[in-house]
Design brief:
Blueprint (H helix, E strand, L loop, with lengths): L1 H23 L10 H6 L1 H11 L8 H15 L7 H17 L1 H18 L4
Pfam families: OS-D
InterPro entries: A10/PebIII, OS_D_A10/PebIII_sf
Keywords: Signal
Length: about 120
């Protein structure tokens, strides 16, 4: 009987661990977004940037979603990102640091400031 209780306990702990781990990640609902094509399109790239920087409206559902998580993702080194989101952040970081480093620095500063505000100025 103790053997059965031990197995049930181990399974329960494993199940809770899996459920908890899944809760830590951002939704993968928009993981199919083609980040490279957005970066290559001046108009789209600026629309996304303006949305993230509070300089323009967020006109699509994916813009709104990513605006909510992008600052946290950058400041936490993407600890809650899916693998695809990590790859996308790397692609975006690489593109901006090579092509528009001033805009990237501006974004990072804003992300840090927003993170401080969100966490009570700590």
């Amino acid at each position: 009987m103790a053997w059965l209780v031990s197995i049930v306990a181990i399974i329960g702990i494993a199940l809770v661990s899996v459920l908890t781990a899944e809760e830590e990640f951002y939704s993968d609902k928009y993981d199919d977004i083609d980040v490279k094509s957005i970066l290559e399109n001046d108009r789209l790239r600026e629309q996304y940037r303006d949305c993230f920087m509070d300089k323009g409206s967020c006109t699509t559902a994916d813009m709104k979603f990513y605006k909510e998580i992008v600052g946290d993702a950058v400041t936490t080194k993407c600890k809650r990102c899916t693998e695809i989101q990590k790859q996308n952040v790397d692609i975006i970081t690489d593109w901006y640091t090579k092509n528009e480093p001033d805009k990237w620095r501006e974004f990072v500063v804003k992300s840090l400031e927003d993170s401080k505000k969100k966490n009570g100025g700590q």
